[in-house]
Amino acid sequence: MTKNKHRFISLLLAAAMILCLLPAGTFAADVADSGECGENVTWTLDSNGLLTISGTGNMKDYSYKYDIPCDSPFWGNNDIREAIIEAGVTKIGSAAFYECENLTRVTIPEGVTSIGEGAFSFCSALESVTVPDGVTSIDEDAFHGCGSLTEIILPDSLTSIGTNAFLYCSALTSIEIPNGVTSIGGGAFGGCGAIASVTIPEGVTAVEGNTFSGCTSLTSVTVPDSVTYIGFEAFSRCTGLTSFVVPADTALITGFAFSGCEALESITFPEGLKTIERNAFQRCESLSDVYFKGTEEQWKAVTIEDNNDPLIAAAMHFAEQPAEPPAGDNMFSFGGEGVTFRETEKSLIYASEAALTKSQLVAAMTVHFEHAVITVEKDGFPITDDAPLGTGALFYVYLSDEDMIAASKTVIFMGDTDGDGTVNATDARLALRAAAKLDALEGAFGSAADTDGDGNINATDARGILRAAAKLDALEVA
């Protein structure tokens, strides 16, 4: 009997040890509650706080505003710690998770196209959310008051962000607004005090009231020229903002638009500005420079309403009247021997033993262009001062500021048929293949191959490039 008793105890201890070695979650948690949250959508909540939503179609929309108690089955349920929305659900209903203050994680599946009004409002423990591709709208108040939210990833499919969608998401440090977004509601990012920079995509036409008000860490904001309206308090109390460029077609700056931007030092207005409403620049005590892209006479016609004293006291800078750009071949003058060049309306064609650099191009500008600025790009990217000016580089000449283009030209470096800024055997080979009709050299590259200027690419051109590469001959501009 004693022997059997000892055996029984040993078995119990062995079983206990095995149970201890099993991973957490081996045994399913009990279902604590369940119900319906849509015509074909159901939910279960287990004893570990995991809410699972299953089914097909839209979740039900619930009420949450205007003193009407929220009727979501999850409203204020602090037992919910994680929510998994399974594939098949196509919309997260309005106020679905309203005030679920212990919800830290949510899984949103592909197939959801909309996040309803107030869906996650005041989920104060929610830390990060990935919105899947396919979602086109994030509605009003969707993440309002999610004070722990540090990251949200928005999909390229998104087209609209609703009013107050991320209002008071005070821990959100960055936001990348997809290029497909065309509508951003008022207050959408108001009170997001940790966001440092934002780029509004081309296609958005209005920065509505309070959209970025109280974004105290915001130091950089890019607003596209598609924006024609800046609303009431749109950027008010952005205390880190030091400069701002108003889009080109904006005619009205509304009241309090930049009120309380205490660090704002400079602002640039478009030529078409008509009205600055009262208090637009109230308490902008650091404002020292105002740049207006029109003339002084045009500025005098702008209506500036009351309580914009910092703006009126700032130094004014008006656009200089652009000089007539010199025509023909007198825009540049390259000194020294060994450089031949010719200009057309759209091209700068030159020949030299070694490629010119951006610095040499700037130095060669004639005195006709006092205060001019040159920018040079290759394949859409700016080049450095010492980079070679190879065939296909594009340069712009600006007068006074970067909105007054005096000229834009494509560089043609004779013999440089691949655009790398050197003349070598590869360039001769490309010219020879073009002469044999095996490959095509088009545009500037074709012009660079036509070294004798007869309008055709032939073996003679290829031979000339090869001899220049070997330093036997020098190419010249015909």
Describe the structure.
This protein has 3 domains: 30-172, Ribonuclease Inhibitor (Leucine-rich repeat, LRR (right-handed beta-alpha superhelix), Alpha-Beta Horseshoe); 178-183 and 195-319, Leucine-rich repeat, LRR (right-handed beta-alpha superhelix) (Alpha-Beta Horseshoe); 340-469, Type 1 dockerin domain (Orthogonal Bundle), CATH 1.10.1330.10. It is flat and about 95 Å long. The strands form 8 sheets. A 6-stranded parallel beta sheet has the order 4-6-8-10-12-13, with no helix packed on it. The chain has a 6-stranded mixed beta sheet with strand order 25-26-30-29-27-28, covered by helices on one side. Helix 5 packs antiparallel against helix 7 (459-469). The chain has 7 helices and 30 strands. With 478 residues, the protein is α/β, with parallel strands linked by helices. A hairpin with a 2-residue loop joins strand 1 and strand 2 (41-46). It starts with a helix and ends in a 9-residue tail after the last helix. The chain is 14% helix and 23% strand. The model is unreliable at 321-329 (pLDDT under 50).
**Could you tell me the radius of gyration in angstroms?**
33 Å
What CATH architecture of the largest domain would you give?
Alpha-Beta Horseshoe
How far apart lie the N and C ends?
116 Å
| Low-pLDDT residue intervals, each spanning 5 or more residues | 321-329
Q: Would you identify the CATH H-level superfamily of the largest domain?
A: Ribonuclease Inhibitor
